Amino acid sequence: MNAKSHLAYLKGIALGDGNISNPNGRAFRMRVTCDLKYPKIIDSIQKSVAVIFPKNKISLIKRKGCLDISFYSNLIPEIFGWTNYKGTKLSQKIKIENWLFKDLKYSKYFLKGLLESDGSIYQDRNYTMINFVNYNQDIASSCKKAFIGLGFEPRIYKTHENGKNGLMAN
Q1: Nearby residues of 81 by Cβ (< 8 Å), 6 or more positions away
Q2: Up-side HSE of residue 87: CA atoms within 13 Å toward CB?
Q3: Is 82 exposed, middle or buried (0-12, 13-18, 19+ CB in 10 A)?
Q4: Distances from the Cα of 45 to the Cαs of 117, 118, 125, 126, in angstroms?
Q5: In sequence order, which residues have a C-beta less than 8 Å from that of residue 38 and are 6 or more positions away?
Q6: CB-CB neighbours of 9 under 10 Å
Q7: 89 domain residue, yes or no
Q8: Is there a contact between 112 and 9 (Cβ–Cβ < 8 Å)?
């Protein structure tokens, strides 16, 4: 995996389970919350963070049933395309860069990150199904675009959960 592949993967992970804050007023913090049941995913995220931010300390904060992977950098808003002081990821109209779709290698790593954070793979009537759920239409549409680039025919469904509109690509 080259550095750009690690970045594509981290962008997918961050769009799903990432959170940006600026707790000390000096440096931005990215926190990715992970379920402890998936140690290989935790390891993959740590490796990608170490490649993209080689001089930064990576902290692991254990909580009940989960773990936060945390690191600081003033480059976080520029690299990930959103910040903590402009509202939620949903309200910021995050732009997904075209380079993530031009090369299938990067599309695959981007999808890997999206699916490992907000996706699932399961069997339904002897078919393998991939499900990705995200309330941000731009993110869901980007996921669909990446799948189309890989030769799949995904569909986007509107869902109504807790009175919110969501999008699900199956």
Answers
A1: 94, 95, 96, 97
A2: 5
A3: buried
A4: 11, 14, 33, 31
A5: 116
A6: 26
A7: yes
A8: yes
The CATH number of whichever domain residue 26 belongs to comes to 3.10.28.10
Task: Answer yes or no: is 115 within a domain.
Answer: yes
Q: Please give the Cα distance from 105 to 152 (Å, whole number).
A: 15
Domain membership of residue 108 as a residue range: 3-119
Q: How many independent structural domains does the chain possess?
A: 1
Question: Is-contact 17 63, C-beta < 8 A?
Answer: no
Task: Measure the CA–CA gap between 146 and 32, rounded to whole angstroms.
Answer: 22
Q: Could you tell me if residue 144 is inside a domain?
A: no
Assigned token pair, 111: 């999808």
If you compute the radius of gyration of the chain from its CA atoms, what whole number of angstroms results? 16
Query: Tens-digit pLDDT profile for the chain (170 aa)?
Result: 899 999 999 999 999 899 999 888 899 999 999 999 999 999 999 999 999 999 999 999 999 989 999 999 999 999 998 887 777 777 777 778 889 989 999 999 999 999 999 888 888 888 888 888 877 778 888 888 888 888 888 888 776 666 554 545 54
In a domain, 20, yes or no: yes
